Recover the amino acids of this structure.
């Protein structure tokens, strides 16, 4: 498995559970901590029809275009992948229904999502209890009054107010999110009015002064790392309200916690994991340049991991490419072309780069859907539509044919295609 | 926008001529602003033509401020005065370019050089290289050469020198270094914490043992015998150059001996070339001149051996890290890139070249070693992709359990936790590891890093072993 994001981890997990030896190789540590921690399947229909959020993502799958990854793997696979996710991500909610939940984000928008961390549960926008949002002066990524105003404008069915307070103690102005989390995890002492006291109580006392009968209070998602549940419970007990976290941008604690849960599951399944160095190249069994015909498809024989100039060969029977999209560098572009850098798989795109984008900033940009196209077993196809390598599958945002940012489908596609690619690589027929 | 086109053939040729000289010798008449210098012939302008330093600009430009590095920093997690790796690296570098008088912020000395930020960056920013150069600049230009801190750091960084002296009278040195009143004085006058116990000096250094074993010639004999036993050609080209570093030389020669025996078991001839300190403690203290002196010794002998077909193998993950990453990042010495690309950590090397898991599956361990180990992966193992190596390898070894005690940093970071003012911080960082060690089944620790081992022992009282020692017990009769 090449790649350590949601798709790579899911394919490693599903392959290992099917009984094969799996090694996962990731250039850098997982990018899950860049993710909000919300896990979506499909929030909006593709094509920007302005139809508003989808209430049932599964119901929309049959209408997706043929090149969409969900069309490739099918609705049943999406459901199986979500079931696997629900089993390993025990601290997640939303599995009780097919329908999307609506979650407030740190910008005050409402996001349709299939699963959400337990810590965000009390924040649901469909809940009609009034809410207080609390921001911290030094944590400028979450402007609580601004987020509250946005939510009001979005027409949420409750009253919401935002206040900004000073976090108790003397944290530096640019303290890292991990600093807040560690302090709250350990309930470490902070200095308040010249007196040392545990941070959870100090924070609760400060927030209590702002409460005006609201039944729930939202904080930026920095309430602990290893002991997030205990931190929320402690604050909630003292304030006699439900406490929730508002998902944040990167670096994100909910993303980090999800990363931990998935790595634990993958580790338990017996997967070998290696990060720190990139897979840069591959070698084929057939390198004599013969014309490819059906039944004579190349096989990847080994891949090379580059370590400070040394090329270390790794060989396996089957490979999964889960290196991410344009942001994750699984797909690269320059002024001339768009390419997939590890196996040099074909990435369909126009020869004229002025066709790659729309003039409107939020237009329906073709580049957003750049990625490899595959056969129905997720094997990348070359420019002529033939399978590139018999034993290579692709999963996650290296795949083309969908715009995850616009349709809010990034997590679901990674889970579903990762699950399918891992099972297929392990020889389980769909 | 639509009038931006690739340059025509003619203008490409012109541009190449101009850019080739790097000074733009075209006359004004040839200057075509409508046809920018793009495409294949594009050559970036040399922004700092007078500088001999490594150009770190691409690193600063690649940073898109996602702050992932900050979430990996063990110091920023506990220290409210530390601004984190993003500031220390790309941001401080920028400040230095725009303002000639910009002084490096003294918080650079609070970076422990764990290098976790390197492994975190999704954008390839060479954070530790930026930290190392900034720290060196700070020490060179801003730290008083008369200060206690400077000399304390210099003594700690040059551990090899003290250890070499101590090895002349190892028993006396071990006692003297742990003599209470002397340590009190060291803390008060030098700022070396008296909380820690100095490691014992070996009564026989690794290289003394090596010479008594017949050195390279003896190793060749033993390797040939192994190859015969293994059914390989006795003349097989299997040879490594061992970089033992300071700690296996003066403090834990059993690790070096284990390496020699394990490699000879697999039919490798071992040579032990002239070498200095890897430089790790000097990088961490901003003493790049000292580090370079040692690097020159090591690179000079290793480069010759690499040319003869040897690979360099280290038993300490910080040493292998220095040779393969920091050397080419910080120094320009003949052959340094070849040495870097031929350097490996010992177990990693065997996993690449031998069927180590196969051998492990058939092996078992006698009563001489513990059955359960609490394993801590050193930070410096991470960038090399080795942090899970021991745990995954020993999964298949009968009668032995190796449990990972989590991804937290041990907190000692070489010389960092030896400094009186950093001792407390180092122990707070280590708290998570100590807790996980207490919860693990084993009461023996395991790690590849000598200073992590000190911290593990200091925090839990456990004896700590190196994976090579377990390999030796499992594989070598």
């Amino acid at each position: 498995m090449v790649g350590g994001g949601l798709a790579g981890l899911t394919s490693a997990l599903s392959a290992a559970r099917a009984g094969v030896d799996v090694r996962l190789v990731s250039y850098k540590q997982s990018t899950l901590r860049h993710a909000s921690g919300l896990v979506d399947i499909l929030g909006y229909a593709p094509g920007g029809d302005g139809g508003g959020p989808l209430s049932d993502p599964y119901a929309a799958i049959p209408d997706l275009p043929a090149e969409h990854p969900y069309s490739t793997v099918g609705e049943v696979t999406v459901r199986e992948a979500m079931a696997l996710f629900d089993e390993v991500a025990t601290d997640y909610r939303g599995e009780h229904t097919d329908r999307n939940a609506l979650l407030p984000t740190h910008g005050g928008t409402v996001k349709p999502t299939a699963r959400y961390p337990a810590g965000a549960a009390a924040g649901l926008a469909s809940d009609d209890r009034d809410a207080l949002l609390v921001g911290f002066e030094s944590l400028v990524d979450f402007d609580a009054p601004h987020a509250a105003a946005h939510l009001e404008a979005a027409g949420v069915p409750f009253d919401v107010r935002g206040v900004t307070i000073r976090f108790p103690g003397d944290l530096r102005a640019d303290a890292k999110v991990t600093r807040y989390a560690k302090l709250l995890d350990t309930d470490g002492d902070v200095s308040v009015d010249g007196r040392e006291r545990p941070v959870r109580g100090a924070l609760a006392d400060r927030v209590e002064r702002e409460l005006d009968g609201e039944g729930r209070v939202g904080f930026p998602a920095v309430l602990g790392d290893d002991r997030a549940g205990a931190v929320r419970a402690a604050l909630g007990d003292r304030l006699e309200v439900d406490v929730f976290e508002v998902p944040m941008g990167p670096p994100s604690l909910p993303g980090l916690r999800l990363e931990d849960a998935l790595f634990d599951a993958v580790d338990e399944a017996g997967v070998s994991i290696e990060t720190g160095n990139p897979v840069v190249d591959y070698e084929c069994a057939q390198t004599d340049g013969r014309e490819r015909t059906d039944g004579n498809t190349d096989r990847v024989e080994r891949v090379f991991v580059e370590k400070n100039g040394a090329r270390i060969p790794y060989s396996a029977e089957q490979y999964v490419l889960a290196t991410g999209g344009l942001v994750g560098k699984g797909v690269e572009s320059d002024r001339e072309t768009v390419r997939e850098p590890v196996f040099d798989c074909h990435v369909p795109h126009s020869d004229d780069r002025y066709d790659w984008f729309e003039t409107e900033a939020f237009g329906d940009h073709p580049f957003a859907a750049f990625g490899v196209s595959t056969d129905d077993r997720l094997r990348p196809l070359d420019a002529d539509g033939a399978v590139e390598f018999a034993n290579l599958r692709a999963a996650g945002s290296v795949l083309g044919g969908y715009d995850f940012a616009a349709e809010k489908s990034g997590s679901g596609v990674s889970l579903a295609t990762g699950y399918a690619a891992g099972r297929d690589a392990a020889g389980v027929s769909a | 926008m639509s009038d931006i086109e690739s340059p025509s053939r003619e203008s490409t040729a012109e541009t190449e001529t101009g850019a080739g000289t790097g000074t733009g010798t075209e006359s004004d008449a040839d200057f075509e602003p409508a046809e920018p210098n793009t495409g294949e012939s594009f050559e970036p302008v040399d922004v700092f033509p007078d500088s001999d330093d490594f150009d770190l600009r691409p690193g600063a430009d690649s940073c898109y401020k996602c702050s992932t590095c900050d979430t990996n920093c063990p110091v920023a997690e506990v220290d409210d005065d530390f601004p984190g790796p993003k500031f220390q690296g790309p941001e401080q570098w920028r400040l230095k370019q725009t303002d000639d008088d910009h002084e490096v912020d003294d918080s650079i000395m609070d970076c422990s050089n764990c290098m976790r930020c390197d492994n975190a960056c999704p954008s390839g920013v060479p954070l530790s290289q930026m930290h190392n150069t900034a720290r060196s600049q700070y020490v060179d230009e801003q730290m008083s050469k008369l200060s206690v801190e400077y000399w304390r750091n210099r003594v700690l960084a040059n551990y090899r020198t003290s250890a070499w002296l101590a090895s002349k009278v190892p028993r006396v040195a071990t006692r003297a270094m742990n003599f209470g009143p002397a340590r009190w004085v060291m803390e008060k006058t030098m700022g070396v914490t008296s909380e820690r116990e100095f490691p014992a000096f070996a009564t026989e250094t690794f290289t003394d043992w090596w010479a008594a074993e017949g050195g390279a010639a003896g190793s060749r004999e033993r390797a040939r015998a192994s190859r015969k036993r293994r059914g390989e050609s006795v003349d097989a080209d299997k040879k490594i150059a061992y970089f033992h570093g300071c700690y296996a030389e003066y403090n834990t020669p059993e690790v070096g001996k284990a390496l020699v025996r394990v490699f000879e078991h697999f039919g490798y001839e071992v040579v032990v070339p002239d070498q200095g300190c890897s430089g790790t403690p000097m990088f961490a203290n901003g003493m790049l001149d000292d580090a370079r002196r040692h690097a020159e010794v090591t690179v000079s002998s290793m480069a010759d051996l690499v040319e003869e077909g040897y690979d360099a193998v280290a038993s300490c993950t910080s040493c292998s890290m220095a040779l393969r990453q920091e050397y080419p990042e910080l120094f320009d010495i003949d052959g340094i890139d070849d040495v870097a690309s031929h350097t490996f950590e010992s177990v990693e090397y065997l996993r690449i070249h031998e069927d180590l898991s196969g051998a492990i599956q058939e092996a078992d361990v006698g009563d001489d070693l513990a059955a359960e180990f609490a394993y801590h992966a050193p930070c410096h193992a991470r960038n090399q992709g080795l942090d899970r190596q021991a745990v995954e390898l020993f999964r298949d070894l009968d009668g032995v359990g190796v449990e990972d005690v989590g991804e937290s940093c041990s907190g000692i970071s070489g010389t960092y936790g030896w400094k009186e003012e950093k001792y407390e911080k180092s122990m707070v960082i280590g708290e998570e590891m100590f807790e996980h060690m207490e919860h693990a089944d084993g009461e023996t620790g395991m790690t590849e890093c000598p200073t992590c081992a000190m911290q593990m022992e200091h925090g839990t009282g456990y004896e700590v072993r190196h994976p090579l020692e377990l390999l030796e017990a499992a594989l070598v009769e």
Remarks:
- Residues 1-26 of chain B have pLDDT under 50 and may be disordered.
- Chain B has five domains: 9-41, 57-141, 148-190, 206-353, 363-475.
- The longest strand of chain B covers residues 239-243.
